[in-house]
Structure formats: C-alpha cells, structure tokens
Amino acid sequence: MTSILITGARKVDGIAGDLFIRDGVFTDPAQAIGTLERIDADGLMVLPGLVDLHTHLRQPGREDAETIATGTLAAARGGFTCVHAMANTDPVTDTAEAAEWIAQVGIEEGHAQVVPVGAVSKGLKGEELAELGMMARSLAKVRVFSDDGKCVADSMLMRRALSYVSSFDGVIAQHSQDPRLAGPTACCHESELSGRLGLPGWPAQAESVIVARDVQLAELANSRLHVCHVSTAESVDVIRWAKARGIQVTAEATPHHLLLDTNLVAGYDTTFKVNPPLRTTEHLEAIRDALADGTIDAVATDHAPHAPQDKDHPFDVALPGMLGLEYALGVVIEVMVNTGRMDWPTLTKRMSHTPAQIGQVHGQGRPITIGEPANLVLIDPAARTTIDKNTSKSRSRNNPYHGLDLPDPVVATIWAGRVTYRR
Amino acid sequence: MKHLLSSGDLSLAEANSILDLADQMQQVQSRQVKKLPVLRGRTIVNVFFEDSTRTRTSFEIAGKWLSADTINVSARGSSVSKGESLRDTMLTLDSMGVDAFVIRHPSSGAAHQVANWVRAGVVNAGDGQHEHPTQSLLDALAIRQHFRKLGQDGWAGKRIAIVGDLLHSRVVRSNVLLQRTLGAQIVLVAPPTLLPTGVETWGVEVTTDFDQVVADIDIAMMLRVQTERMTGGFFPTEREYADAYGLTLERLNRLKPGAAICHPGPMNRGMEIASEAADAANSLVLDQVAAGVAVRMSVLYHVLGGASEGIPL
Questions:
Q1: B310 and chain A: CB distance < 8 Å anywhere?
Q2: Which of A103, A95, A93, A90 is nearest to A60 (CA)?
Q3: Chain A contacts in chain B segment 168-227 (CB below 8 A)
Q4: CATH number of the domain that A31 lies in?
Q5: Do residues B222 and B247 touch, judged by C-beta distance below 8 A?
Q6: Closest residue by Cα to residue A400 from A230, A281, A270
Q7: Is there a single domain that holds both residue A271 and residue A396?
Q8: A41/chain B closest Cα distance in angstroms
Q9: What gap in Å lies between CA B241 and CA B246, rounded to an integer?
C-alpha cells in the first residue's frame, strides 16, 4: 500500500496542516519519508469519509441496474467511504450467508466499505422474523435491520423485532408507511397536486402514524429505532417528542427530501417517483430545520438505481427511487451550509460520525487524528457544476438532479488509506 | 393542435372551434352515405389498455367516417414484472408510421407520457383518474344543443352540478376545466370521502348537500359509481348513497323546468340515477352518445387536419 502525504488541507475547525497516511492509518507527517504519493490540498477542506446508512446496490439480482462495484464507485465519487447495502436484493439478505456474501464481494470489488443491512422479516414478507441473531454474529456483523421498501406493518412483529435486536445492540430501521393509508399504488404526495393529476395520494400521515406507533414500541421494548427517509413535518414533530421523552430513536433525511418538491411530478416524469414521495415546501422546510437542530440525526441517500425498463411505465406502475450517492454532499452544502443553516462540524456529524454510530461501524466516522483509520474526503466547497446524468459512475440514469446547477465539491476520496476517487 | 391531452389545454376559441365543427359533423350522421374524404390516407390507431366498448367504438366510427384507416389495438396494462414497458409498446407502434394515437389507459398521466415519446399526435381517451377530454366536449355539445333548442344560447348564467364519485372520476376533472373555459358556473356535489384532495382550490363551488342545490341548477351531471367503490368503504351502503346523492324521483321533480340531465354511462339505475330521471324528456343520456361520434370526428380533424376552414362537408 502506497503511503500518501496530503499537504495543506484545512479541517472543519479551520486549522490547516499536513496529513500522512501509512498502512491505512493517519500517521505523524514527520515520518513522511521515502516513496509516497503526494496530494496538494492547498485551499481544500478535509472531512472524515462520509457514511451512508441507506444504499441500494441491487447486487445480487439486478446487476443491470447497479452492482456492488459500480454503486461503491458512485459512493466514492460522492465522498463516501462506507455504505449500508439495503436488504431488498434478490435473494433478500435475510440470512448470515447472504450477508457474508455481500460483505465479501464488497471487500473484493468495492470502492468503499460495504456493510450489509439484514432483513427484519424472512423474504421481507412482514410475517416472521429473519435470522437476526445469526446475521449479527456472522462475519458481516450486521447491526442494522430493515425491510426497507416495505413497512414492518404488523405491530406485534415490530415489537418483537425491536425487543430481539436489543440483546446485540442492533437497530430496526423502519420504512414508515401505513399500508392501508398509502397502499401499493400510492405515488404522489396527497395534496392539491395529487387531486389535480389524478394520482393515488400518499398522505403525510401514512408516515407519521407509523412513526408514532414505533417510537412507543421502542420505548416498550427498550430498544433502538431508526426512522428511514423522514419526509413529513408530522413525523419530525413525533420524533422531537420521542427524543424529549428519552426514547432511543434516530432518524435520517434524504438529499431529495431536502431539495426537491412535489411539483416536479406534474409532468408525470417517473424520474421523480420515489417512496416516500417528494413533498411540499412546508415539509421540506421542516426537514431542513430538523436536520439543523439534530431532531434528524443523519443524511442518508436512499440511492435507488433503476434500469430504464423499470421506469418507462405509467407513473403509478413505474418503480420508485432515484440516485443519490454522488450528489448528496453537494445538495446538503447547497441547502444547509450555503444558506447558513448548518456549519461544517455539524455537517460532518450528520454525514459521517452519527451514521457510523447508528450503524455501529467502528472504523468509520472517526476523527482525523493520528492513529485513526484513514477515511477521508477532500473537498472544494465552492466548486459547482451543472449535473449531467450521463457522467454518473452509477450504472443507472434515474437522476433527479440532471440539469441542476449544484455544488460539486468532491476532489478526492480515500478509504482505508486507498484513493478510491480522484477528480 | 398537435395533441388533445387535457381539456385545460383548450382555449375558448379552440373549444368553440371543436364544438362548432362537431355540430356540422353531426349533420353527416343523418346522411345515408356518412363518409367524408378529409382524412383519407391517414392512419389512426386506437390503443386501449383498458376495455371501453363505448369510447373505442365511438372513436372507431369517427375515424372511419372521416375516411381514415382506423386500427384497434387491445393492449394489456403494463406491469414491471412482465411484458414490455409502455414506452416500448408505443415506440413500436409509432415506428409503423401512425399519424395519430387514441389512448385509453388505467394509469393517470399515460397519454401525457406517450405524447412525450412518440412522433404521432395523441388524443387522450381517458387516463386513469385524471382526464377524459372528449367526454367533456361531447357533454358540452349535447348540453349546448339542448339549450339552443330551448332558444337559449351561451353558457353565461348556466349552473352545472356534477354529482358523485369525484375522487376517482376522470370525467369531472375534464368537465371542470372545460366548463370553466366555456363560462358556466360549476358546483361539485359528493360525500366528503369522495371529494378529491385540494378540490377547494379548483375555483368552483363544492358542497356535500345535493338537496341544497338541486332546485337551482340548469344541468345535473350524474357520475357513475364504480362497483369497486361500493365495497371500498367510501360510503356505508348503496341505499344510503342513493338517499343522499342519487337523482331520485323526488329530486327530479325539484329540478328547474328544462334543466338537462346528463350521465356519461353506463348507468347504475336506482343508485346514482332513478329510472324516471334517466328516461325523462330532458335526459341527454343518448344525445351524449350521439354527440360523442361528432365530437371525436371534430377532434381527430383538429389533430390531423388543422383548422376547420375549408372542410368539404
């Protein structure tokens, strides 16, 4: 492994200096002698490598949409050094063997650390628990469990899942969607727009009633709940209440629920179909406020690549989901930092330290100090670009930011001492 | 006019142009030889992803009477798991040199999506719970003819009540958009469970009380209640629905003299409309069907032939 000397990079506390990486670990720059790769980072900022709690890598099963290799390449392009691979692959990640296979392919082919998420229920069917303990004790060390894409709707199953994972400090990451209030065809935020477009409505309360139930079940089970892709002001209110009460709940927001609003679906472009759906600006504002004040703990991408043949359908039939890994940091800088809502240390918490803690990934989200694993991203906070979907590292092109002018900060990403992306 | 996707896309001049030409087209219907040569050599494909004998037949006859080559394609609704995508289906047909597509699809927005993909013109023959513009045009034609017979011209002061399942109806959205352009007053009547979200922003009167408005309307447009809604928990029983929202004999007797009764069909007699109302002298139910062919001839001509000047009738 080549040693790397990074000169002049400024940390989020504003102090600039040299960083020396040897054997995947930050080492005293005084020892930087001999053969080494030099990166001139004068004028750049250095952040700890970003950690994504919510990534769909599509392998195994839909390698035409994304693979572990292409998805983690997109992650590296976006400044991530760790991604959590959601369980809704084919086959579903609901056994120790399936989780270990994904972790192993990640080691062999990945451009970032791949942490498998285990399914809560066998086959994501929402009926009986998957082998949560065996996944936790496997080489993949699964700590995050989620039926994401589907809600664990059965209250008793949810209670049991929360209770069961408490013995190994696992966390249930819930896709909060009441299946009766927002059924399988629900695809547009229920509003004046859904009424006008004739699209089946997905009301905000279909999310918040599940969040309200789950935080109380987490209290009952004395266990950890993580709320995936919070999209409504009502859910934020419930989470704020639960945290004040001392309930162990964390929450994530996606870049698209921070930036994009429901009016984008007015032309029936299925690129903008996502679940939960894009909401109105009032909801966006509530999500931004909650991310700033810590009610929402983390940014997670819900990177969801899809092949064209799964998007070229009528709006209510097309698969939901959009890309996110490559643009997440740019979106957060635009919406949160450039507006003065959030400072750099807080951004670092939301995108690196806290998601690593939630996922119990011990080598990630660490400070940039001597002796720590060398996971970092070098950024130019002022750099901007007009997003072109055809330049994406992802295998898919369902990119909702295409044509937008956004920050494009990532200059280089280093995972465990290895350069995984360099502009 | 390249496409007809939404009644909201029609200006007052365009709407009147379609209705005026439809009036002329309707005279052709009473001739023994009904064919006009105006769309000779043009190809119209009716692509129906959802069964609709009435609308499909109406479009087919309209195309044939204009001498177009009309082909019907029954396609299955798309699914992600099997079969080809909507885009592939339509691009395949488009590559055969089609001049216009008439599209019926169970999904809202399908016609809009297709119009973005294909080279041919697109006429929306009903998309999900969104719009059905030719239905609103044929309703307007039948209503206009009815009031002209009574010596009343123009829409000013005319008050139309649209009653029933507004939530799932594509007819109501197109009618609201068109009637507003034409200048009618609109009142929407439905139980709260069948009102679309945001209906209060549509700029029309909304009430849950049919009895409050029934004596003060010029047109009662009764919408069909789909069977699946009857068991969907939107209202307790058919009896209770008819009691509050049906055009019953009692409500029929309270209508203003000369008030028109419309229904897009097929009717649930005894539910949203009593037989006495369906068969009343001022019921336009069959006039609507007759107007349907004329309106669709006019629409196809506007999409494929251009303006209505110089048409050899």
A1: no
A2: A90
A3: 170, 173, 196-199, 201-202
A4: 2.30.40.10
A5: yes
A6: A270
A7: no
A8: 46
A9: 7
| Number of domains within chain A | 2
Residue keyed to tokens 């696992």: A170
Residues from chain A that touch B129, judged by Cβ atoms under 8 A, are 198-200
d(CA B164, CA B221): 9
| A&B contacts, CB < 8 Å | 82
A57 and A136 share one domain:
yes
Q: Could you give the 3-state DSSP secondary structure of residue A17? A: strand
Label residue B128 left, alpha or beta by phi (over 0 means left) and psi (-120 to 50 means alpha): left
B104 close contact with A: CB closer than 8 A: no
Of the partner residues B79, B84, B196, the one whose CB lies closest to the CB of residue A317:
B79
For β-strands A16-22 and A25-27, DSSP reports them as antiparallel
Domain CATH number, residue A172: 3.20.20.140
pLDDT 10s digits, B9-53: 999 999 999 999 999 999 888 888 889 999 999 999 999 999 888
pLDDT digits 0-9 by tens, B216-236? 999 999 999 987 777 778 999
* Helix or strand holding residue B88 (H, E): helix B86-94
What token pair was written down for A255?
A: 């870049």
Asked whether B278 and B3 are in contact (CB, 8 A), the reply is no
User: pTM for the whole thing?
Assistant: 0.94
Token pair 């809202």 in the structure block, residue: B108
Q: What angle do CA A351, A354, A359 make, to 5 degrees?
A: 105
Q: Check if B78 contacts A (Cβ < 8 Å).
A: yes
- Domain assignment present for residue A316? The answer is yes
Place of tokens 């399908």: B110
Nearest C-alpha in B relative to A266: B109
Do residues A23 and A136 share a domain? no
Q: Do residue A31 and residue A148 come from a single domain?
A: no
**Any idea where the domains of chain B sit in the sequence?**
7-132+292-304, 134-288
Closest Cα in chain A to B197: A195
Residues A245 and A345 in one domain: yes
Contact between B113 and A314 using a beta-carbon 8 Å cutoff: yes
φ, ψ (nearest 5 deg) of residue B156 = -60, 130
pLDDT of the residue at B28: 84
Does the structure show a pLDDT above 90 at B155? no
Which residues of B are less than 8 Å from A192 in CB distance? 197-198, 201
Would A185 be classed as within a structural domain?
no
Low-confidence ranges of chain A (pLDDT < 70): 1
Q: Which of A302, A312, A316, A388 is catalytic?
A: A302
Q: Residue A50: what are its φ and ψ, rounded to 5°? A: -75, 150
- Give me the domain span that covers residue A243: 49-177+210-364
Whether residue A306 is found in the same domain as residue A162? yes
Min distance B281 CA to chain A CA atoms (Å): 34
- Which CATH architecture is the domain B134-288 placed in? 3-Layer(aba) Sandwich (3.40)
pLDDT, residue B233, reads 87
Check: CB of residue A144 under 8 Å from CB of residue A173.
Answer: yes
Q: Which residue has the tokens 């142009």?
A: B17
Written as six digits, the tokens of A25 are 């670990």
The answer to whether residues A360 and A387 belong to one domain is no
The owner of tokens 């991310």 is: A291
Q: Tell me which residue of A125, A123, A316, A283 sits closest to A207, measured CA to CA.
A: A283
Across the interface, whether the CB atoms of A195 and B198 are under 8 A apart is answered yes
Q: Domain for residue A201, yes or no?
A: no
The type of residue at B294 is: A
Question: Per CATH, which fold does B7-132+292-304 belong to?
Answer: Rossmann fold (3.40.50)
- Set of chain A residues whose Cβ sits within 8 Å of the Cβ of B84: 309
Is A302 annotated as catalytic? Answer: yes
Q: Which residues pair with B122 in a beta bridge?
A: B101
> Are A300 and A156 members of one domain?
yes
